[in-house]
Design a protein that fits this description.
alpha/beta; five-stranded mixed β-sheet; 9 strands
Length: 207
C-alpha cells in the first residue's frame, strides 16, 4: 500500500478528523457528528468468489452512535485516481455491512460511504450502477440503481475549506491549491499537521 494512502487513513482514523470531514461534506459545516459519538468498527469483511473466501477492506469505518444509539455506519474510501468500478466496490462494502447487521441480530441502521477523491481532474468515472453496468430499459424497473457519494476534495470552494476545524483543513487546502496553482503555500495559522509539498505526506510538526 502506498505510504500516502497509509498516512491518509491514519489521519482520518482520529475521531475529531473523521467527524470534521463528515460534518463539512454531509452537513455543510454544521457540527452534527461529535468525536465522542464515534466508535471504531471493523473495516474488513469477507465474501465468497470462485469458491474461495476472500477479504475486502474499507479505508476507514466508524459507527455514529450518540448516547449509545446507533444512527449510522459511515465509511471512507480514499481515491487519488478515478475508478470505473467504484459503484460496484461501494455496493460490495455496503452489502457486507448490512449482512453483518443481520448476523448480529441487533437493530438495523443505514450505511453511508464517502468517496474522498483527491485527483486534480474532475471525476468523470461512473457514479452509479447504471453508469457502469448496461441495464436494458425493460429491466430497469427491476434493477435498483446504486449511486455513490463522490467528494472532489481538490475542487472544494474556499468557504468549504474554511469549514474544516481539524487538521484535515490542511489536507483540503493543499489539494485545492495544487490544482489551482500547481504549488502549495502553507497558511500562517498554527496547525498540528501539514503536508510536505515535495512528498505529499502528512506529518506531525510542533508549533
Amino acid at each position: 500500500m502506498p505510504e500516502r494512502d497509509i498516512t491518509e487513513k491514519y489521519l482520518e482514523s482520529y475521531n475529531d478528523v473523521f467527524a470534521d470531514i463528515v460534518n463539512v461534506l454531509l452537513f455543510n459545516g454544521r457540527r452534527r457528528v461529535l468525536p465522542d459519538d464515534l466508535r471504531d468498527t471493523k473495516a474488513r469483511t469477507l465474501y465468497k468468489a470462485d469458491g474461495k473466501l476472500r477479504e475486502q477492506e474499507r479505508d476507514v469505518s466508524k459507527v455514529w452512535a450518540p448516547g449509545g444509539t446507533v444512527i449510522s455506519l459511515i465509511g471512507f474510501e480514499n481515491q487519488t485516481r478515478m475508478d470505473r468500478d467504484m459503484p460496484l466496490r461501494v455496493l460490495g462494502y455496503e452489502g457486507a455491512d448490512y449482512r453483518n447487521q443481520l448476523s448480529a441480530q441487533g437493530g438495523l441502521y443505514p450505511v453511508v460511504t464517502l468517496v474522498l477523491y483527491f485527483g486534480e481532474e474532475p471525476w468523470t468515472a461512473p457514479r452509479s450502477l447504471y453508469e457502469r453496468v448496461h441495464v436494458p430499459e425493460e429491466l430497469r424497473p427491476f434493477v435498483s440503481d446504486h449511486g455513490i457519494n463522490v467528494f472532489e476534495i481538490s475542487f472544494l470552494t474556499d468557504e468549504q475549506t474554511e469549514w474544516f476545524t481539524s487538521d484535515f483543513r490542511i489536507v483540503a487546502d493543499y489539494f485545492v491549491q495544487m490544482r489551482r496553482n500547481g504549488d502549495y503555500v502553507p497558511s500562517r495559522q498554527k496547525h498540528s499537521c501539514l503536508i510536505a509539498s515535495t512528498t505529499r505526506q502528512l506529518c506531525r510538526v510542533s508549533t
